[in-house]
Amino acid sequence: MNEPMDFLIWTRGTAFDIAVTIFVIGVILRLFEIISLGRKQNLAEPKGTEFGPGMRTIFTRSIPDPGTFRRQPLTVVTGYLFHIGLFVGLFLFVPHIELFRATFGFGWPGLPNPIVDAATVLAIIGLLAGLWHRLMNPVMRKISSGEDWLVWTLTFLPILTGYLAYHRMVNPYPLILGLHVLSVEALLIAFPFTKLMHTFTVFLSRWYNGAMSGRRGVES
Amino acid sequence: MSQATLERGINALKEQIDAPVAAFFSSCVSCGMCAEACLFYTETGDPKYTPIYKLEPLRRVWESEYTLFGKLKKALGLHKPVTDQMLAEWQELLYDSCTMCARCSMVCPVGNDIAYMVRKTREGMVASGNSPEGVKGAATRAVTIGSPMGVKLSALEAQIRHIEADSGLKIPMDVEGADYLALLSSMEIMNFPEYLQALAKIFKQAGVSWTLCSSAFEATNSGIQIGSSDIARTLVQRIVDGAERLKVKHVISPECGHAYTAIRWDGPNLIGRPFPFRVVHILELLDELRAAGRIKTRDLESDRHTFHDPCSIARKGGVIDGPRRLMNMVTSDFVDMKEHGKMAWCCGGGGGVSSNEDADELRIRAFKKKRDQIAETGAEVLVTACANCRLVIEEGLEEYKVELPVVGLSELIADHLVVDEEPPETPE
Prior knowledge:
The structure holds 2 protein chains of 2 kinds. By secondary structure, chain A is an all-alpha fold. Helices cover 75% and strands 0% of the residues of chain A. Chain A has a single domain (3-15, 65-215), classed as Fumarate Reductase Cytochrome B subunit, CATH 1.20.950. Chain A contains 11 helices and no strands. Chain B has a 4-stranded parallel sheet. Chain B has a 3-stranded parallel sheet with strand order 5-6-7, sandwiched between helices.
């Protein structure tokens, strides 16, 4: 056995188990941490309901308000590019689906590789443009913390290494594949402790926003 | 109030954190879109006015007290604590440059209700002694004198005598068992008594049984603006006591934005029980009377009119379509501003900003947004439904040398009201 192969085997074995365990337990704990804080009962007579408007806002917030979009289109465009590209690359790439099938016992149909490849390029462009925007835009620079740069890096690396591995652009292949898996593990481990959590909490926050507005008879 | 200290401030912030706040902070990806929704940023271009940035004190407390990782960071001494100096610096961000208009809460891609959190953060600012003098003064006057502007019952009674003498209308006071208790804002009493006269005229025509209350006429709530639940509770309790003493079925929130927030949405939560009466905004009541055919209008205004939505009434209160139906009752050329209703831009003077002298210059700069929005409609008259917005807009227009009359919607309805069994009034 050569060293890159050992490295790949380790990343797919022990390291993977540790990362997934931290990710799963961490996410559950964090969600509990948030939800268990609860909300005070609202005694004001409602004008509308909470549940429906909350669910509605979960979907409608994916579409930007036109006036705000015109003021800052790059944020929206890079956000869309990256999120859609990442989703396609992560969930619709056949080898990824096979990994899910091997781990959880179920899978779903994927997309042809060239389409996934194109989506990955879009995700990379979205992330790079987003980084440039974060560096250049005074508002984003003002509000960015170390965590924002860290999270960007942790998200970028798996996509980049995945792209390099798929195109066999680094030799030996087991090395780049191992680095790809390792970068995913870094992402999974950091996930519960950083704003990567927005992947899950966005549903909570959008729901709360929609529900609180809905109660006052406003669609938010 | 007890002695304000940093410790009290931080404790107050801790108490304010609930599941929505934790979800909001966990979701923020620092995209900065909220800045584009805030007139204090768009009109100055200064990134420190980015709404989410204004919440940094609350975010730090949340992170260090309510997250595993934050607690760990705190234990290792890696946490950036909230200091007196920081809070003093944030006063400008949390008070001078935020009207809690909640426009940012409507655009945040992850759904953060930033205004909800600004209101909460102000509790910490009050408890730590970092609220602005102007707003503090207004709050103190509201508690001790009964009105943020220091308006006493005798001043109201004097205005009532004037109105009754001028119009021949009767303004009922302390009528037990009336259906409706009408509240006023100090600004309406002192600057826009036409509002009270309009109510008397409309209610007489529509046959509404109503009254004022000598112990609860002030609707505004400086506690809500400054961010003190204690003060807010005292002021709401006065209204509840008055309404219960007179056994009214409904309480009418006047043409004042934050008064509606205070009495309609926060009131029952402040006193810890549901109200035994219904709270209705005057525009909601007028729209009900319109729908029931109890008020009719005539001689529509032919000049172009536009309507400014007070944030607390529209975006934060759900009173959006009613005012437009009322506008169409009195004008034949009503044009909405491009962004209106739930996406309306604030006048820049809500949430205590107009009573905060530190904010005067910034407020005038931020007003450019409204000025431009109004100009775009080509309107010759601006109508609104909040005495504070009205005053702020009048002042802003004057500052930018724009000549445009600003009127209250209730008065406009009263001016065009069809009055039975009386000779029609000839306007001018």
